[in-house]
Each structure stands twice: as C-alpha cells, then as structure tokens.
Amino acid sequence: MKLLEDRIKKEGTVLSDDVLKVDRFLNHQVDPQLMDAIGVEFARLFKDDHITRILTVESSGIAPAVFTGLHLNVPVVFARKHKSLTLNDNLYTADVYSYTKQVNNQISIDKRFINADDRVLIIDDFLANGQAASGLIDIVNAANAEVGGVGIVIEKSFQKGRRLITDQGIKVESLARVKSLANNQVTFEE
Ligand code: G4P
Ligand code: NA
Ligand code: NA
Predict the structure, then answer these.
(1) How far is CA 50 from CA 79, 121, 147, 170, 181, in A?
(2) CA of 126 to the centre of ligand 1 (A)
(3) Is 53 strand, coil or helix?
(4) pLDDT for the residue 36
C-alpha cells in the first residue's frame, strides 16, 4: 500500500535493526484518515472470504480493526491483555509470549463474542514473530470457529511470523512488508 509505505518513510523512526517506531500515526497518535484507507484496503483484500467477525488484540490493533469492520460491515472484538473489572470465567484464553519484551501475556475474549459459525479475520498492527496472531488463532480454534485470514498493517518480513501462519494454511495479507531496517533505513519488499 503506497500511502502507508510513504507514511512510514516520512514519519517512521528506525530504533534498531529490528524495531520500527510509528507512534505518529499508529501506535500512540492515530491518523483516522490513514486508518480509514487501511480499512478500505483490508476490506478489498478480504471481500470474498466470507468474514463474519474481526478479532484483534488491545491496544494498537483496535484502530485498524475497527475501520476494517466498518468497511466489511462486521463486528470487531479485541482480546484483552488484562482482566476486566466485570470479570467472568466464561473466557477463551491464550498465552502470548513477547520476544521483544520477554514476557508472557495472557489474552482473553468473552465466549459470547465469538461463535462456532464465525469466519474470523484477525487484524493486527505489527507482525514480528507471530505470537499475537498465533494466540488469536488458538482462540478461534477453541471456539470451533474458522480463521478466514490474517491482515497485518506492518509486517517485518525478516522475522518469522508470516511463515508460522501460512504454514497453517491461513491467508496472510500485509499492507507494508519491511524487508530490512539495517543502517537506519527502511527497505520494503518489492
Ligand atoms: P509478535 O506478536 O509478532 O511475536 O511480536 P512481539 O511479541 O515481538 O511484539 C510485542 C509487541 O511489540 C506487540 O505490541 C507488537 O505489535 C509490537 N511490535 C513488534 N515489533 C514492533 C516494531 O518493530 N515496532 C513497533 N512499534 N511495535 C512492534 P503490544 O505489546 O501488543 O503493544 P500494543 O498493541 O499495546 O501497542
Ligand atoms: Na499489537
Ligand atoms: Na504494538
């Protein structure tokens, strides 16, 4: 997606050989117009996949997921990383290990918000090692629902996340595929 790549070039900061900071439009400040364009693009890419629901994980997946739900006209559910005050035990949970932060997080979704007849589109802001997406896939499987695809705003294609998902026969669409962050330079896949 040209618009997104241009924005990453213009406003992204390379923090190291494997971390890209994009807090001016995605991870802290959010650009609604860009998110809307992202939603339109994901809706186009998944329009024939019979998606009935979108799943993401708080917090940075929510903005692109909501705009995608708007354009696919389906509800959006985000997994929580922290137990909510109105906690019940009617939850699907999955463990998500973060290599970046070296911590294990438990994510959870209320069972009322995913059904066995759902075809779920998983949306997230970044795809690195694929642990967040895998946790969401585990939850969809636990609900006996189907994964209709995975949509990623920024994929770091030099990390192993895509492979982990496509090996399960799941369609992955990334709007920007970063090939390298070496030498303080963002290089995209062709
Ligand atoms: P993985 O799920 O693909 O295995 O990724 P990993 O554990 O490495 O990522 C942990 C967190 O860091 C996730 O956000 C993920 O989106 C984010 N992340 C991974 N690589 C990058 C990067 O290059 N740049 C930025 N800005 N973020 C990255 P999170 O902890 O769930 O936070 P949030 O959703 O609340 O923002
Ligand atoms: Na995220
Ligand atoms: Na993030």
Answers:
(1) 21, 9, 10, 14, 35
(2) 6
(3) strand
(4) 98
Task: Tell me the whole-structure pTM to 2 decimals.
Answer: 0.96
Residue 138: predicted pLDDT? 98
Structurally, at CATH architecture level, domain 2-188 sits in 3-Layer(aba) Sandwich (3.40)
Each domain of the chain, given as residue ranges in start order, spans: 2-188
The residue count for the chain: 190
Is the CB–ligand 1 distance for residue 128 below 6 Å?
Answer: yes
Complex confidence, ipTM: 0.91
Is residue 132 within 8 Å of 57, Cβ to Cβ?
A: yes
Contact call for residues 68 and 43 (beta carbons, < 8 A): yes
How far apart (Å, rounded) are the C-alpha atoms in residues 94 and 118?
19
DSSP one-letter code for 80? B
Nearest CA to ligand 1 atom 24: 20
